[in-house]
Amino acid sequence: MASVDVEMVKCACPDCVCVIPVAKAVERDGKAFCCDECASGHPDHAGCEHAGCTCHG
Ligand SMILES: [Zn+2]
Ligand SMILES: [Zn+2]
Ligand SMILES: [Zn+2]
């Protein structure tokens, strides 16, 4: 069994379902987000670019 040694974290945006590796997460205010849009709180109501995500502020 190969061990995948990557820590995964869910995006802190409430509506976002993305889970990203900690190393790739966008950190803002001590929280981890999947992308800049989520980290900024979707100021332009732009959606997450990830399929399946309904978050857009
Ligand atoms: Zn997302
Ligand atoms: Zn997100
Ligand atoms: Zn979001």
Q: Return residue spans where pLDDT drops below 50 for at least 5 consecutive residues.
A: none
Distance between the termini: 40 Å
* Helix/sheet category: mainly beta
Largest sheet: 2 strands, antiparallel
CATH architect. name: Roll
Ligand identities: zinc ion
What CATH calls the topology is Ribosomal Protein L24e, Chain: T
Measured by DSSP, the beta-strand proportion falls in 15-25%
User: What is the CATH first-level class name?
Assistant: Mainly Beta
When the domains are counted, the total is 1
Helix content: under 10%
The strand count comes to: 4
Per DSSP, the total helix count is: 1
Mean pLDDT: 87
Order of helices and strands: EEEEH
Shape: globular
Rg result: 12 Å
The main sheet orders its strands as 1-2
